[in-house]
Design goal:
The chain has 16 helices and 19 strands. By secondary structure, it is of the alpha/beta class.
């Protein structure tokens, strides 16, 4: 697991490092630039005769670019230097290294009348190092900066970005009009939110976090997790056992127009190890031979159930469903609220301490009656409002957020094929199966990982375009049999 920080937290850590270690900003920039240079050479593999152009602004991100330029010179390369902005507005650290650069080469500046010179420079380059904005950007890219970024992207050169591809918001990963499409990104010290969230995955290329010796005295709340950080082994089966020992799950949902959602969920639960399942829906029609189907309009006995999935395919605004939800809310039964079930959830009236909410961004923003872009811009503000009420949250997206009051975990499936109808219903069923012997948070983490691994297999078999939700279910067994391997992303 790796820490993920806001820009503010990163600045505080940098300040603490300077104080504790007794080094200067200039020293820290040298250390960062040296690490970035080694990473660039190791991963991008430039040859000594290749033309490398460093494109720097006059901030600290650009200063790192200057150090890279100087380090490449020492190693025998012959880099070129393009500077954007006025050095009169530069940081102290930038100016320190800028003086050294100007002793070694003629610097080209981005102005309003030298477009042709810049185009020639960039066209002749095989590699471009992006030190334009990094983590220092908070407003949309405009004017000559926007034109330059678009031009650089259009050249299809190998681009290495320093910390964050220029044009990505460092605190939420959103595109600020246009951003560098990097082949490689060297992240300084720790991941920032902008390296992980929203548009980030489509712009960073291959990412490497570079340790530059920053001092971090306390653990951070937000962490990026990977496949091998948690065991996803289901409850161990013994010979002297029976189905109820592996969990009785209730699956409540499935309307006339959407009967498939609840069936995807229940089958995913059974494939993931749930011992026995009952589906409650309108006008039930048996879809799976292994499942008990009952009419949702009858009384439901919750006295023996181990876990509940409430919502896939469920229609909002139904008084009977509201009564069922109220029964669940007044219990402590481990319950997944998904899809239509989220419409019955009241943020100001939470009694069940074991709720797991699984919204996508639109469903999440609807809980607060705000637009999706409001949540995208300030995701952790809204996440904390939810989890501080005592629930567990899985916010589904290109980066899954799995959170409770004490922990926020981020996980990237890196599989666009998951954007298919019913994928979330499958996830809700997998969560149900893990709830038999896990806490809501642990069950959520394990379910997200199993779901993702099975989806990798589905993509291997059918491709990102053709894979569908049931394909994920059909590959769960491979993961649980221990056949999973890291497939190409």
């Amino acid at each position: 697991m790796e820490s993920v920080l806001s820009v503010k937290e990163m600045r505080e850590i940098e300040a603490l490092t300077l104080k504790e270690s007794g080094i200067s900003d200039i020293d820290l920039m040298q250390h960062a630039g040296t690490k970035l240079t080694k990473d660039f050479i190791k991963r991008a593999k430039p040859e000594i005769h290749n033309v490398i152009t460093v494109v720097s602004s006059v901030g600290n991100n650009g200063g790192d670019g200057l150090v890279i330029f100087l380090e490449l010179l020492k190693l025998g390369y012959k880099p070129k230097m393009l500077v954007i902005g006025s050095v009169n507005n530069a940081t102290k650290s930038f100016n320190h290294y800028f003086k050294q650069v100007t002793q070694e080469t003629k610097v080209i500046f981005l102005t309003n009348d030298n477009d042709l010179d810049i185009q020639r420079l960039l066209v002749s380059s095989k590699y471009i190092i992006d030190g334009i904005f990094g983590a220092g950007l908070s407003r949309p890219v405009e004017g000559k900066y926007l034109d330059l970024i678009r031009y650089m992207n259009g050249l299809e050169k190998v681009i290495y970005s320093i910390d964050i591809p220029s044009g990505i918001h460092p605190d939420n990963g959103l595109l600020l009009n246009e951003a560098i499409k990097a082949n490689y990104t060297g992240v300084i010290g720790f991941y920032k939110y902008g390296n992980i969230l929203n548009d980030a995955l489509d712009y960073h290329g291959d990412i490497e976090v570079l340790d530059i010796g920053l001092v971090k005295k306390q653990d951070t709340m937000v962490k990026l997790i990977k496949e091998d950080d948690f065991s996803i082994a289901p409850k161990k089966r013994i010979h002297n056992s029976y189905k109820y020992q592996y969990g009785l799950g209730y699956f409540i949902g499935g309307s006339k127009t959407m009967p498939g959602a609840i069936n995807l969920s229940v089958l995913a639960a059974l494939r993931s190890g749930q011992g026995i399942a009952r589906v409650f829906q309108e006008n039930p029609v048996a879809k799976h031979l292994e499942v008990i189907y009952e009419d949702i309009n009858q009384d439901i006995d919750f006295s023996r159930v181990d876990s509940i999935v409430f919502g896939p395919g469920l229609m909002p605004g139904n008084n009977h469903y509201q009564e069922i939800y109220d029964q669940i809310n007044n219990s402590d039964i481990k319950t997944v609220l998904d899809a239509g079930g989220l419409k019955y959830f009241d943020l100001e009236n939470i009694k069940n301490p074991n709720f797991i909410l699984t919204p996508h961004e639109k469903e999440f923003s609807d809980m607060f009656s705000v637009e999706v872009n409001e949540v995208e811009h300030r995701p952790f503000d809204y996440i904390k409002q939810i989890v501080d009420k005592g629930v567990t949250l899985i916010l589904k997206g290109q980066t899954n957020v799995i959170a409770n009051k004490k922990h926020i975990y981020l996980y990237q499936a890196k599989n666009p094929g998951l954007a298919t109808a019913g994928s979330g219903d499958v996830l809700s069923g997998i969560i149900s199966s893990y709830l038999i012997d896990n806490s809501p948070l642990s069950a959520s983490i394990k379910a997200v990982l199993l779901h993702s691994k099975a989806a990798f297999y589905a993509r291997e078999t059918y491709g990102e375009v053709s894979m569908i939700a049931s394909d994920i279910i059909n590959h769960i067994h491979k993961v649980l049999k221990g056949e999973y391997h890291e497939v190409s992303r």
